[in-house]
Design brief:
about 140 residues, six-stranded antiparallel β-barrel, Thrombin, subunit H, elongated, disordered C terminus, 6 strands
Length: about 140
């Protein structure tokens, strides 16, 4: 109606009810801070490809967060080589879930998929965390 001064109802969209919009954490697990220099191996059509230098900033049982100079596409896959014990390196496959610009580089979040290769590693995801985290921050 002309001259109607009643407040109009606000249309709510999905972003209003997401955990991030409410200021809540949306991860399923707590992330633990890390500071590990690593070299990822990009996967292209199932073959090993480009090596990318990254700094792993945080990790959980099911994922890692890292900073790098290269942009990643959502669902890109890569291998993360980790030394599990002296003379034992295992390759872990991750898939990129998000990538966003951050200053001179990019912040990337990736989800653990599988142990891709290892000569002896038959351990758990807890052991992966221990390989990434400094000794004093390793979960009990």
């Amino acid at each position: 109606m002309p001259g109607d001064s009643r407040p109009r109802p606000r249309v709510i969209d999905l972003s209003d009810i997401t955990p991030a919009a409410r200021g809540e954490e949306h991860r399923r697990e707590k992330r633990m801070p890390a500071n590990l220099q690593a070299s990822l191996i990009m996967l292209a059509d199932g073959e090993q490809g480009e090596r990318v230098a990254v700094t792993v900033l945080n990790c959980s049982l099911h994922g890692i967060g890292f900073r790098c100079e290269r942009e990643f596409s959502r669902n890109a896959e890569f291998l993360l080589p980790l030394e599990m014990e002296p003379n034992e390196t295992a390759l872990f496959r991750y898939i990129v879930r998000h990538c966003r610009p951050d200053g001179a580089g990019f912040l990337v979040g990736a989800e653990f998929q599988e142990v891709a290769a290892s000569t002896r590693f038959l351990g758990s995801q807890d052991q992966i965390l221990r390989a990434i985290l400094p000794r004093q921050e390793t979960p009990a």
